[in-house]
Amino acid sequence: MAKLAEDIPHIKKLQAGDKGALYELYTKYSAALYGVIIRMCREENLAQEVLQDTFLKIWKQIHTYDPEKGRFYTWAYRIARNTTLNALRKNNDLIQKEDLSVYKDMEAEEEERDYSQINGMLRNLEPHHQKAIDLVYFKGMTHREAHEEMGVPLGTFKSYVQQALRQLRTAYGKEIFMLLFFIKLWFGNG
Amino acid sequence: MDRQRILDDGLLTSYLLGTLSAEQHNEVSRILGEDKELQEQYQLLEADFERLAMENAIAPPPAALSGLKNQLESESGSPVIPISSANKNFTILRSRLLVAASLAALFALGTFWFYSRWQNTLGDLEELRLQTANLQNQMNSLEGNLTLTTQQFQKLTNPDVIPMVLEGNDLLPNSRAVAYINPVSKEVVVNPIGLPPLGPDQTYQMWADVEGVMINMGLVPTDEAFVELTFIDHAESLNITIEPAGGNDHPTVENLISSVLL
Predict the structure, then answer these.
(1) Under an 8 A CB cutoff, do A81 and B18 touch?
(2) Under CATH, which number does the domain A118-190 receive?
(3) pLDDT above 50 (res B79)
(4) What is the pLDDT of residues A5-30, one digit of tens each?
(5) How far is A14 from chain B (nearest CA, A)?
């Protein structure tokens, strides 16, 4: 189904136990995954640990990945999201059991860097559409958690997500169209 | 669960994000496997989310990769990859990156060149549009002037028109105005070019004498070639006086500068 042809050789090598293939995939996708993880964690040390754990899981579970069912990145995103949520839960348990002041200091240090900023086409959307995508994609919330966070009914929230995705599709579609147009113009003019 | 419910409830997005229950996840996966059109929608959604993630990517610190390598190393007990192989892979990757970067730069330059040309053309087009609009305005204005002049010319050359010269008296001996009177169409037009200009607080005013009563015909500004005035029936003479700016209800007889009997 939705497989990215250029990833297939790496995935086959990875399934055959080639660590080099894992590092190739790391080079390609680690920044995108880290962008999600750090926005969920908002703490660099924890985010690094989660990123490592994510790729360790990819290494161990690659035999369960079926390219026919979707892109490698989507599969890796799900692993990253779940790993991050588990790490955050563990972290919260620790904070409740241990000395809170240590973590307060850590939070104070981490506040110096703002990971919440969003980039790219998402910035062109209206604020409530940006927020909806941010909550479900970069904060890892379910629709139910996110609609409560935004303070709007579930149905309204779902429509925000659908509208935002439609607008992104249109915007990305236009970019591809412009790209094709310029390529045609370039080669057309010789 | 069916296709419509998947679309209506936004389950495709939840499936992609991995937030569905295991049962729902398997169900959506099964339906996706059977429905080509839904598959296509899902592929676009995946591509968009991946693009979104790439646009919001944040490079992890290099320590993360070395940490991963160490962990893999300690778990498997075998070297990560031979150094020579790593160097070879790195060299291949670097060459590919160089080729990709060159192509990207070439494409960016080409795109920029076309974009500049496009912008210049748009600028030229806008300038031409403005020039056309200006020419259109000028043409409209000229047409208006021509129509006015033609109408005035027709009024003056009409065989029913009687021209009357109003010579200045002792107050303004060198002044002169010409009144064109059409008793049939009941119109009066005055050419005041021969009247000397007045100060800003004064104006010429024309009057018709009807049985000893001076009736106002209107003001006569000296900056117009033809001034249309009110035609008064049974006028016995035409008279011009100098009045305060804005005109007067009654003529200031001591300021009478010209008069002609009809």
Answers:
(1) yes
(2) 1.10.10.10
(3) no
(4) 888 999 999 999 999 999 999 999 99
(5) 13
